[in-house]
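Notebook entry, structure prediction.
Reason for the run: the old model in the group folder had no record of what sequence produced it. Starting over properly, with the input documented here first.
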Amino acid sequence: MGYTIAQKIIKEHLVSGEMKVGNDIGLRIDQTLTQDATGTMAYIEYEAMGIPRVKTEKSVAYIDHNTLQTGFENADDHRFIQSVCKKHGIYFSRPGNGICHQVHLERFGKPGKTLIGSDSHTPTGGGIGMLAIGAGGLDVAVAMGGGAYYITMPKMVRVNLTGKLSPWVSAKDIILAVLRVMSVKGGVGKIVEYGGEGVKTLTVPERATITNMGAELGATTSVFPSDETTREFLKAQGREEDYTELSADADAVYDEVIEINLSELEPLAACPHSPDNIKTIKELEGKTVDQVCIGSCTNSSYLDLMRVAYILKGKKVADNVSLAIAPGSKQVFNMLALNGALGDMIAAGARILESACGPCIGMGQSPNSKGVSLRTFNRNFEGRSGTADGQIYLVSPETAAVSALKGVFTDPRCLGDAADIELPEKFLINDNMVIAPAPVEEMDSVEILRGPNIKEYPETSPLTDTIEASCSLKVGDNITTDHIMPAGAKILPLRSNIPKISEHCFTVCDKEFPARAKALGKSIIVGGENYGQGSSREHAALAPLYLGVKAVLVKSFARIHKSNLINAGILPLTFTDAEDYDKIKLGDMLELPNVKEEIANASVITVVNKTTGDTIKAECELSDRTRAIIIAGGLLDYTKENS
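New structure, fully documented this time:
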């Protein structure tokens, strides 16, 4: 039996465990990336491990999230990260150089290599055949220190692409079609691999759009073959020596196969408030649009924005629409400026933003109240835009651009013949905004620069024999990390200050939660299906840790958030019987009478509702390693004990 692409990379990097679905496996990590919203805490964690120099082939820190500097906090964090990078052997991508996933694809990613990043959209690297996985900051810190990255061996899903996209139908429409089939939780415990004749019709940036939004499926990662198209992209980036051919064996076996005929696709939109709430643009056509935002790590490539410029050239944005465009990298921005495309966008009335995440994570450009905003981004969770009642739709750059001109949802196929735009044979290469670390002989003299907003990792403690705590919060299905730990211009600058950011924890759901949890001292959260979907932000575990949350009892977890809870030493429990969810109310006193023993013996966990007298059974699915992490009080404590 042959291997899939992902299985080949896993086999090459396997350091522990067996490649059987459901087994705990450890992988050697070649590259890491961080961004500034998660990076400060990741580097605080790295420092705590006491390892002087990173042991990866390449680690890069990007400044792309917290670039709006309305106070000292973000600038201090950037300075701290830069000094850590210089001292510990990490490359530093300065603010303005671009979005981590776009820049990493352009300048650092290599087919066949492993990459983990403290951002859930790290799977963008799958567009050039990397095994690229989003992870919590502490997992990234451990990998930088030379430790393995552990995952549950996933199932393999093949998405078989046939045919060819029609004019003005794009890669964004492909991944929206996959989301329509699989849903936001259909990829949990799976790697999505793309194959078929249709793959040859897609450029690397188009492939990267698709793997980027694989995060919205809940998938471990997504990956494309590395083929001649990949070689040409790397050659154009001056990196042909990084090319490795990589494809699935003809007799590879997949757990699931999905067929997508590209010729049959039409322009699509993800409607509020979920990436899998899919409708055709034809169904929405004529609906008034208030705002259009083009960019993000999903759709800010040279190819995307050249198509946008083609549509906008010589025309004017509708009076009722605010159009904002953010190129994904300095490379893209500079090339658009030099070839005149940027001028075409500006002349049409576009507001040009810096090369950063910006509106995608609520950092500016919030729409008007109840405003309809078309965005080429990857998430449209309620409130994520910064406007609580904003109506956010996810669309392709082509749909976004033509709708900005018309002022209403418009099918881009009305434009007729497709734009004849190809990738350049050679990209403009200038890495002067990537700062190399200090040489080994100089690293000891480098000073780490800390601002007053940078606080220590929250205090942890080993698992106790018994837990007795109130239910401090009860929530429903599909709770996202944006619900747990909101983003936005007001809150993101607090990412390096857990005590302060915890004041905003779960306030989207219950404004009283932070004060209630802190007053209780210790508590348990109860939730529904797919708890913790969305971003990789470990703050969604660290803030509850600081507030005294000892366990989270839900119907099911999203992968990264469950891992982050384990790393923080918070028990991730699932109901054995989902109907038991109804047996717990806010304020009920819960007891886990023999929890340490039950965890140690991999037993069913007993939860006694002392308020009602009900006894509830819960599962705590852990490997031997994660069981030891929980008992130790979290990954940091475990790493110190075992180093």
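Summary: The chain has a mean pLDDT of 96.
The old model has been moved to the deprecated folder.
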